[in-house]
Amino acid sequence: MKALIVEDEKLAQQTLQRALERNFPDIEVVAITESVKGTLAWLRTPGNTADLIFMDVELQDGSAFEIFKQETITAKVIMTTAFDKYAVKAFEAGSMDYLLKPYDDEALLRAVSRCQAASENFDINVILSAMQRFARERDDDRKTYRRRFIVRLGQKIIPIETSDIAYFYVEGKSKYIVKNDGTRYFFDQQMESILDDLDPQVFFRISRNFIISSYAIHGIERIYGGRLKILMTPPPETDMIVARSRVSDFMAWLA
User: Fold this and answer.
1) pLDDT digits (tens, 9 = 90+) for 214-244
2) Which phi-psi region, left, alpha or beta, contains residue 57 (left: φ > 0; alpha: ψ -120 to 50)?
3) Nearest to 240 by CA among 146, 185, 170, 181
4) Among 29, 199, 239, 242, which residue's CB has the most CB atoms within a 10 Å radius?
5) What DSSP character marks residue 182?
6) Strand 156-161 vs strand 58-59: parallel, antiparallel, or unpaired?
Protein backbone atom coordinates (compact mmCIF):
# COMPACT_ATOMS: atom_id res chain seq x y z
CA MET A 1 0.00 0.00 0.00
CA LYS A 2 1.35 3.40 -1.00
CA ALA A 3 0.91 6.35 1.34
CA LEU A 4 1.18 10.12 0.89
CA ILE A 5 1.79 12.31 3.95
CA VAL A 6 0.47 15.87 3.71
CA GLU A 7 1.89 17.68 6.73
CA ASP A 8 3.71 20.99 7.15
CA GLU A 9 5.40 20.27 10.49
CA LYS A 10 8.72 18.42 10.22
CA LEU A 11 8.41 16.72 13.60
CA ALA A 12 4.89 15.52 12.80
CA GLN A 13 6.13 14.16 9.45
CA GLN A 14 8.92 12.20 11.12
CA THR A 15 6.70 10.94 13.94
CA LEU A 16 4.07 9.60 11.54
CA GLN A 17 6.63 8.05 9.20
CA ARG A 18 8.36 6.20 12.06
CA ALA A 19 5.01 5.01 13.44
CA LEU A 20 4.05 3.61 10.05
CA GLU A 21 7.39 1.80 9.76
CA ARG A 22 6.87 0.21 13.20
CA ASN A 23 3.29 -0.85 12.72
CA PHE A 24 2.74 -1.22 8.98
CA PRO A 25 5.84 -2.49 7.13
CA ASP A 26 3.64 -3.11 4.09
CA ILE A 27 2.88 0.63 3.79
CA GLU A 28 5.37 2.57 1.67
CA VAL A 29 5.50 6.35 2.15
CA VAL A 30 5.95 7.51 -1.45
CA ALA A 31 5.98 11.27 -0.80
CA ILE A 32 5.58 14.03 1.76
CA THR A 33 4.04 17.37 0.82
CA GLU A 34 3.66 20.45 3.01
CA SER A 35 1.17 22.72 1.26
CA VAL A 36 -2.02 22.86 -0.77
CA LYS A 37 -0.05 23.90 -3.85
CA GLY A 38 2.59 21.20 -3.39
CA THR A 39 0.01 18.49 -2.79
CA LEU A 40 -1.99 19.42 -5.87
CA ALA A 41 1.20 19.41 -7.94
CA TRP A 42 2.11 15.94 -6.68
CA LEU A 43 -1.37 14.53 -7.28
CA ARG A 44 -1.44 15.93 -10.81
CA THR A 45 1.95 14.52 -11.78
CA PRO A 46 1.56 11.49 -14.09
CA GLY A 47 2.60 8.27 -12.39
CA ASN A 48 2.07 9.57 -8.83
CA THR A 49 -0.46 7.42 -7.01
CA ALA A 50 -1.35 6.75 -3.39
CA ASP A 51 -3.76 4.29 -1.80
CA LEU A 52 -3.82 6.15 1.51
CA ILE A 53 -3.34 9.82 2.33
CA PHE A 54 -2.59 11.22 5.80
CA MET A 55 -3.60 14.86 5.61
CA ASP A 56 -3.23 17.67 8.13
CA VAL A 57 -6.12 20.14 8.13
CA GLU A 58 -4.08 23.36 8.36
CA LEU A 59 -1.24 23.61 5.83
CA GLN A 60 1.35 26.24 4.98
CA ASP A 61 -0.81 28.01 2.42
CA GLY A 62 -4.34 27.26 3.55
CA SER A 63 -6.86 24.58 4.43
CA ALA A 64 -6.77 21.03 3.12
CA PHE A 65 -10.34 21.69 2.02
CA GLU A 66 -8.88 23.49 -1.00
CA ILE A 67 -7.24 20.26 -2.19
CA PHE A 68 -10.58 18.47 -2.31
CA LYS A 69 -12.24 21.37 -4.08
CA GLN A 70 -9.59 21.41 -6.82
CA GLU A 71 -8.77 17.74 -7.31
CA THR A 72 -10.65 14.44 -7.33
CA ILE A 73 -9.27 12.21 -4.58
CA THR A 74 -9.65 8.45 -5.02
CA ALA A 75 -7.36 7.36 -2.19
CA LYS A 76 -8.66 6.76 1.30
CA VAL A 77 -7.98 9.75 3.54
CA ILE A 78 -7.09 9.98 7.21
CA MET A 79 -7.17 13.53 8.51
CA THR A 80 -4.69 14.57 11.21
CA THR A 81 -5.64 17.56 13.29
CA ALA A 82 -5.14 19.27 16.64
CA PHE A 83 -8.66 20.72 16.58
CA ASP A 84 -10.16 18.50 19.25
CA LYS A 85 -13.29 20.63 19.63
CA TYR A 86 -14.45 20.02 16.09
CA ALA A 87 -12.46 17.13 14.67
CA VAL A 88 -14.52 14.30 16.12
CA LYS A 89 -17.88 15.40 14.79
CA ALA A 90 -16.40 16.75 11.56
CA PHE A 91 -14.44 13.67 10.56
CA GLU A 92 -16.45 10.71 11.84
CA ALA A 93 -18.00 10.14 8.45
CA GLY A 94 -18.10 7.38 5.86
CA SER A 95 -14.76 5.96 4.82
CA MET A 96 -12.80 8.94 6.12
CA ASP A 97 -11.13 8.69 9.53
CA TYR A 98 -9.15 11.10 11.68
CA LEU A 99 -6.20 11.18 14.03
CA LEU A 100 -6.30 13.72 16.83
CA LYS A 101 -2.85 15.11 17.62
CA PRO A 102 -0.95 14.00 19.58
CA TYR A 103 -1.98 10.45 18.71
CA ASP A 104 -0.45 7.11 19.74
CA ASP A 105 0.18 3.83 17.91
CA GLU A 106 -3.19 2.47 19.00
CA ALA A 107 -5.06 5.35 17.36
CA LEU A 108 -2.96 4.97 14.21
CA LEU A 109 -3.67 1.23 14.08
CA ARG A 110 -7.39 1.88 14.45
CA ALA A 111 -7.50 4.46 11.66
CA VAL A 112 -5.37 2.54 9.17
CA SER A 113 -7.16 -0.74 9.88
CA ARG A 114 -10.52 0.88 9.22
CA CYS A 115 -9.28 2.19 5.88
CA GLN A 116 -7.84 -1.19 4.92
CA ALA A 117 -11.10 -2.93 5.77
CA ALA A 118 -13.29 -0.33 4.10
CA SER A 119 -14.89 -0.73 0.72
CA GLU A 120 -12.82 0.24 -2.27
CA ASN A 121 -15.50 2.74 -3.16
CA PHE A 122 -14.61 6.17 -1.82
CA ASP A 123 -17.34 8.81 -1.81
CA ILE A 124 -15.78 12.24 -2.22
CA ASN A 125 -19.07 13.85 -1.17
CA VAL A 126 -18.58 12.39 2.30
CA ILE A 127 -15.26 14.12 2.80
CA LEU A 128 -16.48 17.37 1.23
CA SER A 129 -19.48 17.45 3.52
CA ALA A 130 -17.37 16.83 6.62
CA MET A 131 -14.75 19.37 5.59
CA GLN A 132 -17.40 21.99 4.88
CA ARG A 133 -18.82 21.51 8.36
CA PHE A 134 -15.36 21.87 9.80
CA ALA A 135 -14.72 25.06 7.80
CA ARG A 136 -17.97 26.64 8.96
CA GLU A 137 -17.38 25.77 12.60
CA ARG A 138 -13.77 26.91 12.43
CA ASP A 139 -14.91 30.27 11.05
CA ASP A 140 -17.44 30.57 13.89
CA ASP A 141 -14.71 29.81 16.38
CA ARG A 142 -12.55 32.51 14.87
CA LYS A 143 -15.34 35.05 14.89
CA THR A 144 -14.03 38.52 14.29
CA TYR A 145 -15.44 41.23 16.52
CA ARG A 146 -16.33 44.77 15.60
CA ARG A 147 -13.27 46.97 15.10
CA ARG A 148 -15.05 50.31 15.13
CA PHE A 149 -18.37 52.03 15.72
CA ILE A 150 -19.74 54.92 13.70
CA VAL A 151 -21.46 57.84 15.45
CA ARG A 152 -22.97 61.06 14.20
CA LEU A 153 -22.17 64.46 15.67
CA GLY A 154 -24.26 67.08 13.92
CA GLN A 155 -23.34 66.80 10.26
CA LYS A 156 -20.18 64.83 11.02
CA ILE A 157 -19.72 61.06 10.90
CA ILE A 158 -17.09 59.93 13.40
CA PRO A 159 -15.46 56.49 13.48
CA ILE A 160 -14.51 55.27 16.95
CA GLU A 161 -12.07 52.37 17.27
CA THR A 162 -13.31 49.72 19.69
CA SER A 163 -9.91 49.76 21.40
CA ASP A 164 -10.54 53.44 22.29
CA ILE A 165 -13.82 52.73 24.11
CA ALA A 166 -13.88 52.65 27.92
CA TYR A 167 -17.57 51.84 28.32
CA PHE A 168 -21.12 52.07 26.98
CA TYR A 169 -23.96 53.24 29.16
CA VAL A 170 -27.67 53.99 29.15
CA GLU A 171 -29.15 57.17 30.61
CA GLY A 172 -32.91 57.29 30.43
CA LYS A 173 -33.73 56.36 26.85
CA SER A 174 -30.38 57.50 25.51
CA LYS A 175 -27.27 55.39 24.97
CA TYR A 176 -23.69 56.65 24.96
CA ILE A 177 -20.17 55.60 24.12
CA VAL A 178 -17.42 56.96 26.37
CA LYS A 179 -13.88 56.94 25.03
CA ASN A 180 -10.73 56.46 27.07
CA ASP A 181 -10.09 60.22 26.89
CA GLY A 182 -13.50 60.97 28.43
CA THR A 183 -15.23 62.08 25.22
CA ARG A 184 -18.88 61.06 25.18
CA TYR A 185 -20.99 60.35 22.08
CA PHE A 186 -24.67 59.63 21.67
CA PHE A 187 -25.16 56.22 20.12
CA ASP A 188 -28.40 54.78 18.77
CA GLN A 189 -28.08 51.01 19.16
CA GLN A 190 -29.58 48.54 21.63
CA MET A 191 -27.23 47.34 24.37
CA GLU A 192 -27.96 43.69 23.50
CA SER A 193 -26.83 44.13 19.91
CA ILE A 194 -23.78 46.13 21.00
CA LEU A 195 -22.70 43.26 23.23
CA ASP A 196 -22.99 40.76 20.37
CA ASP A 197 -20.42 42.79 18.41
CA LEU A 198 -17.84 42.96 21.20
CA ASP A 199 -15.03 40.60 22.22
CA PRO A 200 -16.30 38.96 25.45
CA GLN A 201 -12.75 38.72 26.74
CA VAL A 202 -12.52 42.53 26.72
CA PHE A 203 -16.08 43.75 27.37
CA PHE A 204 -18.57 42.73 30.03
CA ARG A 205 -22.10 43.89 30.77
CA ILE A 206 -22.10 44.54 34.50
CA SER A 207 -25.71 45.73 34.67
CA ARG A 208 -28.62 46.73 32.49
CA ASN A 209 -27.04 50.15 32.03
CA PHE A 210 -23.31 49.51 31.61
CA ILE A 211 -20.98 47.56 29.32
CA ILE A 212 -17.37 48.11 30.34
CA SER A 213 -13.90 47.44 28.96
CA SER A 214 -11.47 45.55 31.19
CA TYR A 215 -8.73 47.96 30.10
CA ALA A 216 -10.55 50.93 31.65
CA ILE A 217 -10.92 49.39 35.13
CA HIS A 218 -8.50 50.81 37.70
CA GLY A 219 -10.11 49.50 40.86
CA ILE A 220 -13.00 47.61 42.48
CA GLU A 221 -14.68 48.39 45.80
CA ARG A 222 -16.85 46.02 47.80
CA ILE A 223 -19.97 47.77 49.01
CA TYR A 224 -23.16 46.85 50.87
CA GLY A 225 -24.74 43.47 50.28
CA GLY A 226 -21.62 41.98 48.72
CA ARG A 227 -22.02 44.14 45.64
CA LEU A 228 -19.16 45.66 43.68
CA LYS A 229 -18.47 49.22 42.63
CA ILE A 230 -16.22 49.60 39.59
CA LEU A 231 -13.72 52.44 39.45
CA MET A 232 -13.13 53.45 35.87
CA THR A 233 -10.88 55.75 33.88
CA PRO A 234 -12.46 58.00 32.85
CA PRO A 235 -14.86 58.08 35.83
CA PRO A 236 -18.59 57.77 35.06
CA GLU A 237 -21.07 60.46 36.10
CA THR A 238 -22.95 57.92 38.25
CA ASP A 239 -21.74 55.00 40.35
CA MET A 240 -20.97 51.93 38.26
CA ILE A 241 -22.35 49.00 40.27
CA VAL A 242 -22.19 45.35 39.21
CA ALA A 243 -25.66 43.80 39.39
CA ARG A 244 -25.84 41.32 42.27
CA SER A 245 -26.78 38.49 39.88
CA ARG A 246 -23.67 39.16 37.78
CA VAL A 247 -21.01 39.44 40.50
CA SER A 248 -19.81 35.82 40.18
CA ASP A 249 -19.68 35.97 36.40
CA PHE A 250 -17.90 39.30 36.54
CA MET A 251 -15.20 38.01 38.88
CA ALA A 252 -14.70 34.94 36.68
CA TRP A 253 -14.42 37.21 33.61
CA LEU A 254 -11.95 39.48 35.35
CA ALA A 255 -9.69 36.64 36.53
Assistant:
1) 999 999 998 887 789 999 999 998 999 998 8
2) alpha
3) 170
4) 242
5) S
6) unpaired
